[in-house]
Amino acid sequence: MVNYAPKTLQEALKLRQETQSVPYAGGTDLMVENRKDVSYLFINRVAELQQVLEDEAYIRIGSGVTFTQALENKLVPELMKEAVSKIAAPAIRNAGTFGGNLGNGSAKADSVLIEYVMDAKIRLLSVNGERIVDVDRFYKGRRDLDLRDDELIAEILIPKQKIEKYAYQKVGGRNALAISRISFAGIVDTQDGKIKRIAAAFGAVADTVLRYKEIEKTMLGKTVEEAKELRETYIKAYMDNMVLTRGRVSAEYRKAVCENLLRDFLELI
Amino acid sequence: MNFYLNGKPVSHEGDPAARLLDVLRDDFDCKSVKCGCKEGECGACAVLIDDVLYNSCCVAMGSIEEAHVLTLEGFRETKQFAALSKAFGELSAVQCGFCIPGMVMASHALLLKNPHPTTDEIREGLSGNLCRCTGYNAIVNAVENAAKEGDGLW
Ligand SMILES: Cc1cc2nc3c(=O)[nH]c(=O)nc-3n(C[C@H](O)[C@H](O)[C@H](O)COP(=O)(O)OP(=O)(O)OC[C@H]3O[C@@H](n4cnc5c(N)ncnc54)[C@H](O)[C@@H]3O)c2cc1C
Ligand code: FES
Ligand code: FES
């Protein structure tokens, strides 16, 4: 198998277009998968993908930034850091990257859950130019991404935002002994006593991350008092909409866990 | 493929997708690097690459061009190792020993970043290293002692 080890982004994009190679960032998912007869495109030495930058509108996290690097970076939002700090253990956080977390298309990807509630956009590059896609459009389904054969994930663009209150929970572990895992992230902001924004998403319960913007809208503009009254209706709407994949633990049990996570979150209002 | 192993320049011909773990054990006779799971879960295969801790079962050879790989075989020659070894011995932190090379490399990586860790920070630093025998407390205490007695080495 061939060794593609570009040093610059331009070289990497060219190789991505010209070869059938599989992008390799930190390898923590790929090496466990252990695919046979693949040629990797080793992008772990491409410095341009390893920066965290800031412009007027966004915090821009390079796809090759590792979780450890993010935890040590001042620009990365606290909510993201909280989720990332709970990923596995140091050796995995030292290798695992934001691009790789997205690249699997898994509903369990912890940084992706935060990208959902923070309305992140994914910046994709190819030799032909760039595309910028909302994260929930990029993630089409289980292992199904809006990523073309000649594209690399270049950056995660997180809109700059003031977050008043947030909740992040990861229930259960990933290791061999833990039978199930559910993750939840929610953000709620008020202004002049009214709900200005509410965003909630569940990870690891279905084929993809679940967020229901339609249900969120029913809370917008409500006063805090009204929102409190609405809590149970809101929870019921979620429970009616959520279809969970069957796992080793019954879907009913996991739904009950989701309900509790949502209820705890709404206590923040 | 060229890289440095325990300070010496070496080269490796072969599949760039091969696991560093297998190459270290089979081609470079670094038998301290243990294989417990090949899934990144146990830490028995942990090594340092450019002073950062990685599980070598999750590293493909093609990703380490020009990098410095440190295994226990090289680390054994250092004063830092002597401090850790003494502390592990004094506190009987070793039982069957299978997890210990990985534990020692993880401890070294932790102390390089944070020479005076709290107990919680030690637990976090070793959280990717599974041990079936000791119940961890003796290991955590050993790292605490090594940090104290080896003060200035990291
Ligand atoms: C023991 C263990 C524990 C774990 N725990 C967690 C956890 O708690 N939470 C969690 O979310 N994940 C966890 N993971 C999964 C994994 O560590 C993460 O998904 C990580 O972010 C993967 O990043 P990577 O750079 O290692 O990806 P790689 O393995 O290098 O790549 C993963 C996929 O993404 C593609 N890819 C990578 N970069 C790009 C790019 N720039 N453009 C296009 N495609 C790209 C690759 O082709 C591949 O398909 C764990 C893994 C292990 C082994
Ligand atoms: S063998 Fe690498 S982590 Fe278990
Ligand atoms: S001493 Fe036996 S596994 Fe740790």
Features:
heterodimer; A: 269 residues; alpha+beta; Uridine Diphospho-n-acetylenolpyruvylglucosamine Reductase, domain 3; Enolase-like, domain 1; 2 domains; five-stranded antiparallel β-sheet; four-stranded antiparallel β-sheet; globular; B: 154 residues; Ubiquitin-like (UB roll); DNA polymerase, domain 1; five-stranded mixed β-sheet; 6 helices; 12% strand; binds flavin-adenine dinucleotide; binds FE2/S2 (inorganic) cluster
Short description:
The complex is a heterodimer of chains A (269) and B (154). Chain A has 269 residues and is of the alpha+beta class. Helix content of chain A is 33%, strand content 25%.
Question: How much β-strand is present in the residues of chain A?
Answer: 25-35%
Helix content of chain B: 25-40%
* Number of discrete domains of chain A: 2
pLDDT average of chain A, as an integer?
Answer: 94
Number of helices of chain A: 11
Rounded radius of gyration of chain B (Å):
15 Å
Number of domain units of chain B: 2
Low-confidence stretches of chain B at least 5 residues in length (pLDDT < 50)? none
List the helices and strands of chain B in order.
Answer: EEHEEEHHHHH
Tell me the fraction of residues in β-strands of chain B, as a range: 5-15%
Low-pLDDT segments, ≥5 res of chain A: none
Q: Mean of residue pLDDT of chain B?
A: 97
Query: What gyration radius of chain A follows from the Cα positions, in whole Å?
Result: 19 Å
